Amino acid sequence: MTADRSQPTRRVVALAALGVAGLLTVLGLLLVVAAFTEDSAIETYTGRAEADVVSVSFGRTLVRFQTPDGAVHTPGYGVLYPEALQEGQVVRVEYDQRNPELVRVAGRGASLTVLPVSTTVLIGWVVVGALVWWLRRQGPLLLRPIFPRRIRV
Per-residue pLDDT tens for 45-92? Predict the structure, then answer.
């Protein structure tokens, strides 16, 4: 019986793909939890203002707004949930009065993150599942010997 020389490579690729999918899942969960945590902070100490959209880019959308104490804020990380905003637009925002750097577009919340994150995680697992299925069709992956069973004496 001849040994399949590609078996260790296929096993490593399968384990790496499963690891990447697991990491993607954990990061997705952390993103959703962070969104709900930030929304909770805003809802606990809500401040409201009109904001000018200063800049729109792929990574962030910057807004400028004034708080009741007269301070003007332009959060460096941008506004949360900026879909469909355009430069020069005036929008209502809600912010955390204790930390005006934490600001979101009024009426939008963390629930908007659930669908894109879950879709991304699902697509990741489908791709990894297809890859592992294809690798298994090439021959057994023998993942079990990597984690040997303990022999009880």
Answer: 999 999 999 999 988 999 999 999 999 999 999 999 999 999 999 999
The token duo for 144 is 């079990």
Cβ contacts of 109 within 8 Å, gap of 6 or more = 39, 81
Residue 26 CB-half CA count within 13 A: 6
Domain ranges of the chain: 7-144
Whole-angstrom distance, CA of residue 120 vs CA of residue 124: 6
- Say what the pTM is: 0.78
DSSP symbols for the chain = ----TTHHHHHHHHHHHHHHHHHHHHHHHHHHHHHHHHHHHHHHTEEEEEEEEEEE-SS-EEEEEE-TTS-EE--TT--BS-TT--TT-EEEEEEETTEEEEEEETT--THHHHHHHHHHHHHHHHHHHHHHHHHHHTS----GGGSPPPPP-
What is the Cα Rg of the chain in Å?
A: 24
Both structure tokens of 60: 């962030």
